[in-house]
């Protein structure tokens, strides 16, 4: 914020509040795109390749969906593991600590979403897509998009919780024993 914007923001509180509320949404959208798009691209490519490879042996929707699911999981998490490791290597004291924090954050951010997604939502969505749409590529992509909507609703909520808890930046917050609500930073 420039000095002029800062001065006008202090005199005109309603305009400042509107600008402040609009900026996080724009920044938030860019953040989510930058964070997840590379993993999505690699995961989608791995999904299509794995699904198409299996269609050379069978046209059973369940097997095509299973291969696509495994391919996507491997591609998606390979990219995210590297991304989170690079974030954590900046705040962790050692490489071992960065690896441990990466594993913890992958589970915290994606654990619940991945369990629901892998065991229920994605296989059903992929199988339904391959069954309803004659072309297996378009069927897999349609199923993937439907499953991704549910997955990211859960994962984004988990990411927000880990960020608010201070798990991402290397500091964790806890209340004091007095229960007053004062917070202290704890170095992990």
UniProtKB/TrEMBL annotation:
Record lineage: Bacteria, Bacillati, Actinomycetota, Actinomycetes, Micrococcales
Residue intervals passing through the bilayer: 36-57, 63-86, 98-121, 141-163
Keywords: Membrane, Transmembrane, Transmembrane helix
Sequence segments annotated as region (Disordered): 1-21
Biased composition (Low complexity): 7-16
Protein name: Uncharacterized protein
Entry keyword Membrane: yes
